[in-house]
From TrEMBL:
InterPro entries on file: Cit_transptr-like_dom (IPR004680), DASS-Related_Transporters (IPR051679), RCK_C (IPR006037), RCK_C_sf (IPR036721)
One Gene Ontology CC term in the entry: plasma membrane
Keyword Membrane included in the entry's annotation: yes
Subcellular location: Membrane
Residue stretches spanning the membrane: 6-26, 33-54, 60-82, 148-172, 192-212, 418-435, 441-458, 470-492, 512-533, 554-572, 592-611
UniProt-listed GO biological process terms: potassium ion transport
Membrane topology: Multi-pass membrane protein
UniProt domain RCK C-terminal: residue ranges: 227-309, 317-401
Protein name: Sulfur deprivation response regulator
Amino acid sequence: MENLTLTTDMIVVLALLAFTIFLFVSEVVRVDVAAVSVMVLLGLLSLVPGLGGLTDADQLFAGFASNAVISIIAVMIIGAGLDKTGVMHRVAAFIMRVGGTTERRIIPTVSGTVGVISSFMQNVGAAALFMPVMSRISNRLGIPLSRLLMPMGFAAIVGGTITLVGSSPLILLNDLLPDGMEPFQLFDVTPIGLALLASAIVYFVLFGRFVLPSADTKGGSGESTAEYFQRVYGLNYQIREANVASGCELIGWTVAEIEQRFGIVIVGSHVKGDLRIGPWSGYELEAGQDLAVLGSPEALGRFLDANGIRPRREMKVFADAMAPGKSGVAEVVIAPGSSLVGKTVTDVAMRRTYGLSVLRLQRGEEPIREGLRDVPLRATDTLVVHCDWESLARLEGNRDFVIVTSDYPRERLRPSKVPYALFFLAVALGMILFTDLPLSVALLTGALGMILTGVIDMDDAYRAVSWKTVFLLASLIPLGAAVENTGTAAWIAQHTLDLLGQVSPWVLQATIFALATFFTLVMSNVGATVLLVPLSINFAMAAQAAGMDADPRVFALTVAIATSNSFLIPTHQVNALIMGPGGYRVKDYLRAGSIMTVLFMVVALVMLNIVF
């Protein structure tokens, strides 16, 4: 093997690597600003006499047109298109039905699903498609998005090790093996990949509460809706779900009678597949009916105890409908000149007509709590209501009301476009799996199809792209190329392995694994694979010649799997993708990713030696 000598270009590249890691870890500037700064600095240094080999000035910005970056842009647009049609809404609802409504149950369900999907498509594509799902689940369950995206993202990365087509390094592996060496089959790596995915899921289930950040996504003062209505109106409320069993005294009672008797509000009803938000006051209860009941803890307790009803510990039937992203408590004011002035809440059938369940009536400084449904309304009366957000949005143009609550979700879904969205998603996935087209072309075909058929308009497509992610990845690509093209990566690998000398195969394999992990953090995983697979095979053969039990084929696979060990810093495409939406900082990756990196290495090495 040719002995490599440290050159001036290599020294400069090593210094740039150290500087980049310093900027990422110290967070002196934002990571995307740091990446752009390093890219520009690399270009300027190439003008210094003797350093022209650092980079080609004409290729400095080629990262913005790279297959990876264009693929990420396209898949963000596809994900937004699916979200616009309500597809992701349905997926999120299904996951919550299957996986429950708690963080410890949602994480395994989502992570397992994403991991399996990413074993047959690019992991960044799988992660991007599930980002709208995670956002919806976060909104509905009140779980910070930062506690959901990282487990999902890590599972997408790990899922690439389940099959031989799950990641670019594994796809390349057979082409890098020398002639005469037995190639790997599609599912040869599956036991290893499944063990890695299972270990990642167990890690976040057991230790997620310690290592995952809880980024504040509320904005403003951070005061919750419940805290606001408690402070302004003294309205202390909870929503509980319960079932009316056969023989219950409430059967045959109307909604109005129950609310007047117990001082609670029935905000949801479900019976025989008919789910209603804000059921009509004259609606009669039936046996087996599910109710969503809102009221103070004391009133709820009296209602449940008096009727022998056991509430469910968590929402099941109404988990989706009562989620913060679908419904909630709002303020509306009776407008001057409103046709409702002089009429009562009962007269206008407020629930049936407008979808509003009135909880409190505020007249100036006077709160009206008792008999409010029979009090004639006056102009400027403030109604505190529970409703679904679609009903509230419909009132925006109604001159009888002034809508005070403004920060509620306004979604204009396009359910009629679902067939187009699913068709072009299938086209993109089909092109990825069954053609040799670049990933970027396949995904852009799907994204363009959605735009042309009106699934998503161009302005929404622009807004769907996380430009922070785009600039971060595109700016790091020239540095990765410089590490490879100047011979810096080869020099590091060769001298590290030379220093080891005669060691046991386990130590040699672990060192190769660590080298591959390091290189995949600072350059492309494809580049790390192309560089290290031949080196690892040569060292295994040298170890064999020295009488050690080292299998060159296993050492090559070790490199291909180790290049998925990318959890420490946000240089991997998936980590960069989730960084902005999750509100993550580099130290969050260091905290959660450091343990995951060691766990991945230990499980992978053990499984490699068990399976092979």
